[in-house]
Write a structure and sequence with these properties.
- With 568 residues, the chain is an alpha+beta fold.
- It contains 15 helices and 21 strands.
- The radius of gyration is 23 Å and the shape is globular.
């Protein structure tokens, strides 16, 4: 469920964050009021400590646009101008294989947002989500009944949503609250080789008494501890190599034992699927550690490289950079008050959209009291994916041999990477608007802030077209041109003029939306929709009520930590 109007009604009926997650007796108007709640405050203070620690290690990091490294202002978590909006409700019955004693999960997703007062009020969301996760209603053996109740609830919503309340869902048992936030952003002027840099904090909190405490992150190994504790790395390697565990890894439903798990993780962008920081199992192992394994009869595992990449994809860091939208899989549709220049046309990631048929098949099988197939494809390549524009494709490793491209497309290496992900991207044989034009070779480092890309030979964009440069914020370069004689799959959109746009922001006198409106030029862009998806590191922004265009995500200020007004 993602209809903003309907979700606002649900909030009024008791599904607001304060009442649903933190047990408040009534809705609260702002985060300032919510901070009085001890349960919420325990999460906000934990996040504030994490952000303060980041700042203590980087003297160039601050909440100001005047510094080269920008930090999320933790004051938004207690600001009188900020609040959380319900942006989606997702039934994850398909998560039942991870915990067979439960009927999957029911997720309520909230975005941090703000609304300023004054002569020129500003409304925007921020790049932070809270995923409030409940165990799916029902127990093992009763999931068909739970599926029927969910179906009946959806039918009731189409008639009258006013009577829906948390009680309509039965007795809900809170599992956890999952946090994903963009903590750090560097503009492309600071990291021109990648087109920018961003870090995301990933945390899971569970209720302990009256407050929330950090909990283990699913399938995300604590790399530092495993490397430090004698014998723990070998114990993990042995666990992975066990035939029963290997089968579950292949199916995408393995659960790493808690003794190996981290409680803090981050993911980094851009070129996220090729970054060592997002590949914890590549940090711990090399391919030769699994050279003795047989992969005969496996669905996704046909090589040690494929095994490591599959494990990375099951981790939080890996999954949150696998066909995502700016580090997120679900951002929520914009409310009507959102500025047009700050609007998203497709509010879910390519992985989320391409995975829907599998989730629906699982749901229908349970509803029909049949045994559902547990298999989950990697986030980087859905089972239904046919190799359309922007899809990940194989470049020779046996585990990715079936990752081909559709007719008229070919597999090309955007980021050459022999260690983390030797895969390419499906691109048109003849370049069009949106095609990448500046491939490169990534150099991995233990500290992702020092990763780099060595540029390769620039690719042609065709007659009358130019390559918009990575160094001005277009990751991998982007073919574009004027808006005359648009081709199929192209749309006329706006391209920010970086120098004047950044100068306007740094002066701090005008709101982001005005700076963007006054510092753009028209250009041919790749058109997009929920069935025509953007490549990695681009999102489908709103051009009109019926059209979207692929642009770098940080061109929208709802997806960056900087450029916002003072939270006080």
């Amino acid at each position: 469920m993602d209809d903003p109007v309907l979700l606002q009604k649900w909030e009024r009926n008791g599904f607001d964050l304060a009442r649903l997650a933190f047990g408040a007796p009534a809705p609260v108007p702002s985060n300032e009021a919510l901070f009085e709640n001890a349960a919420y405050r325990s999460i906000a203070e934990s996040v504030t400590e994490d952000l303060s620690e980041l700042r203590s290690h980087d003297r160039l990091l601050s909440t100001s646009m005047r510094t080269p490294h920008r930090l999320l202002d933790s004051d938004w978590l207690r600001s009188p101008q900020a609040f959380f909006e319900l942006v989606g409700i997702v039934n994850r019955l398909d998560r039942a294989p991870f915990h067979p004693e439960h009927c999957g999960e029911l997720r309520f997703i909230y975005r941090l947002a703000y609304r300023t007062s004054g002569k020129e009020p500003i409304y925007s969301r921020l790049p932070l989500t809270l995923n409030v996760v409940f165990w799916g209603p029902g127990r093992e053996g009763q999931c068909a009944d739970a599926a029927r109740r969910w179906q009946e609830l959806q039918q009731a919503l189409s008639q009258d949503s006013s009577a829906i309340s948390p009680a309509s869902l039965g007795q809900l048992e809170l599992k956890s609250i999952e946090l994903n936030l963009q903590s750090v952003r560097w503009p492309s002027t600071v990291r021109p080789d990648f087109g920018g840099y961003a870090e995301y904090l990933l945390r899971v909190f569970q209720k302990k008494g009256e407050v929330f405490r950090l909990a283990p992150l699913e399938n995300t190994p604590d790399v530092a501890r495993i490397q430090a504790v004698p014998g723990l790395r070998e114990k993990l390697r042995t666990w992975i190599a066990d035939p029963q565990n290997l089968a579950k890894i292949d199916e995408g439903v393995a659960m790493l034992p808690e003794e190996f798990l981290a409680r803090r993780a981050r993911s980094v962008a851009l070129a996220g699927s090729h970054r060592l920081a997002n590949a914890p199992f590549h940090q711990l192992f090399v391919e030769s550690d699994f050279a003795q394994l047989s992969f005969t009869g496996r669905k996704t595992l046909h090589s040690p490289q494929g095994l490591l990449q599959r494990l990375n994809d099951l981790s939080c860091s890996g999954c949150h950079q696998g066909r995502t939208v700016a580090g997120f899989h679900f951002l929520g549709k914009d409310r009507r008050e959102t500025e047009p220049v700050n609007s998203i046309f497709v509010a879910a990631s390519p992985h989320f959209l391409l995975d829907q048929p599998r989730r629906e098949r699982f749901f229908q099988a349970v509803l029909s009291e049949q045994e559902p197939a547990p298999f989950r494809a990697p986030s980087t390549r859905a089972a239904e994916e046919k190799g359309d524009l922007g899809a990940h494709c194989g470049l020779g490793d046996p585990s990715f041999r079936d990752w081909g491209c559709s007719a008229g497309l070919e597999c090309r290496a955007l980021v050459s990477d022999s260690r983390v992900s030797p895969t390419g991207v499906c691109m048109p044989q003849e370049p069009q608007a949106g095609s990448f034009c500046q491939p490169g070779q990534v150099q991995h480092h233990e500290n992702p802030q020092t990763d780099s890309i060595s540029p390769g030979e620039e690719l042609r964009c065709g007659s009358g077209r130019i390559c918009e440069d990575t160094s001005v914020g277009f990751p991998g370069g982007m073919c574009s041109g004027n808006c005359q004689n648009l081709r199929q799959g192209e749309v006329c959109g706006s391209i920010a003029v970086l120098q004047t746009f950044n100068h306007c922001l740094s002066r701090g006198r005008l709101p982001f939306a005005q700076c963007l409106r006054e510092n753009v030029r028209p250009g041919a862009l790749q058109s997009c929709s929920e069935t025509e998806l953007c490549r990695d590191d681009y999102l489908c922004a709103k051009v009109s009520e019926t059209q979207g265009a692929c642009i770098p995500p940080y061109f929208l200020f709802q997806l960056r930590v900087d450029g916002h007004p003072d939270p006080d």
